[in-house]
Every structure is written in structure tokens, then in C-alpha cells.
């Protein structure tokens, strides 16, 4: 069985994944932001550049992550 951890951040998801990518030798495979997504209407107006969902592949393992809007 393989587990895929999902990390939740308070607005620093993209920076964290870039750090993990560089430090752990992974590759960001996808990174979708709130802006332009159906979830945008449920997030604060200044939250458009935050990460709605992202995946980082490290040595065949998948790490998923996102930013959670305030109060979630």
C-alpha cells in the first residue's frame, strides 16, 4: 500500500513546495491556484495567488498540498 500525504498551509504552500523541490530533489508536477477556479468565490479576494491544489513527486512518491483560507 502506498500513502500520499496531503499538507495544508496558511498561505505559504508554493514557497514550501519550491523549497522541498530544491532540497529533496523532487519535481512540482502540478500547481493550481484559487484564481480562475470555482473555489475562488469561496476564498478571500486577496487569496487568488494562493495554492488550491499541488502535487510534488519525490523519488516516485507523491506529496500533495494546498493553502487553506483563513477560518478553514
Quick overview:
The protein is α+β, with helices and mostly antiparallel strands. The chain has one helix at 13-24, and strands spanning 6-9, 27-33, 51-58, 61-67.
Kindly describe this structure.
The protein is an alpha+beta fold. Helices cover 17% and strands 36% of the residues. A four-stranded mixed β-sheet has the order 1-4-3-2, with helices on one face. A hairpin with a 2-residue loop joins strand 3 (51-58) and strand 4 (61-67). The longest helix has 12 residues, at 13-24.
Shape call: elongated
Q: What is the string of helix and strand elements?
A: EHEEE
What is the helix tally?
A: 1
**Class by SSE composition:** alpha+beta
What portion of residues belong to β-strands? 35-45%
Number of strands: 4
Order of the strands making up the biggest sheet: 1-4-3-2
What is the distance, rounded to the nearest whole angstrom, between the alpha carbons of the first and last residues? 30 Å
* Largest sheet data: 4 strands, mixed
- Sequence stretches where pLDDT stays below 50 over 5 or more residues: none
User: In which range does the helix fraction lie?
Assistant: 10-25%
Mean pLDDT across the residues is: 93
Gyration radius over CA: 13 Å
Amino acid at each position: 500500500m502506498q500513502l500520499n500525504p496531503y499538507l495544508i498551509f496558511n498561505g505559504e504552500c508554493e514557497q514550501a513546495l519550491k523549497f522541498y523541490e530544491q532540497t529533496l530533489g523532487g519535481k512540482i508536477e502540478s500547481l493550481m491556484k484559487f484564481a480562475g477556479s470555482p473555489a475562488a468565490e469561496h476564498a478571500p479576494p486577496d487569496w487568488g495567488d494562493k495554492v488550491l491544489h499541488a502535487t510534488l513527486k519525490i523519488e516516485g512518491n507523491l506529496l500533495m498540498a494546498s493553502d487553506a483560507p483563513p477560518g478553514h
